[in-house]
Amino acid sequence: MSGTLIAIIILAAIIGGYLIDYQKNKLKWQSQNKQSDEQLDDIHKELALITKRVENLEAIIADESFGSVAASTGNAADIELNDEVPIKKENEKRVSEQAKKVKGD
């Protein structure tokens, strides 16, 4: 009887050790997953910001007065970008019109 009791105690200690290790690893994985989610959210925000900037640049390039502004300032980096997001369709239309003009020249 005492041999069986010792075997049960040893088996319970081994299983308990595995369960404790599993819980520790589970907490570590959850922490890493949370950090990955935060990084992914930061990347989405950065992508949205870059998209807005590209749309602003498209609007500036498509604007016919861009050439005269750049020529008068001498430096295109001095032009301030508008933080408001222009309508995407309007930008695409302006860019395609400018492309047609360039192809026609």
Explain the overall architecture.
The protein has helices at residues 2-62, 66-73, 88-104. It is built from three helices and no strands. Helix 1 (2-62) crosses helix 3. It has a domain at 35-105. Helices cover 82% and strands 0% of the residues. It is mainly alpha-helical and 105 residues long.
Uncertain runs are none
Shape: rod-shaped
Order of H and E elements: HHH
Which structural class is indicated by helix and strand composition? mainly alpha
Q: Beta-strand level of the residues, as a percent range? A: under 5%
What percentage of residues falls in helices of 4 or more residues? over 70%
Largest sheet descriptor: none
Terminal Cα span: 101 Å
Estimate the mean pLDDT confidence: 79
Put simply, the count of helices is: 3
Number of strands: 0
Nearest-angstrom radius of gyration?
Answer: 31 Å
Topology:
Layout: H1 2-62, H2 66-73, H3 88-104
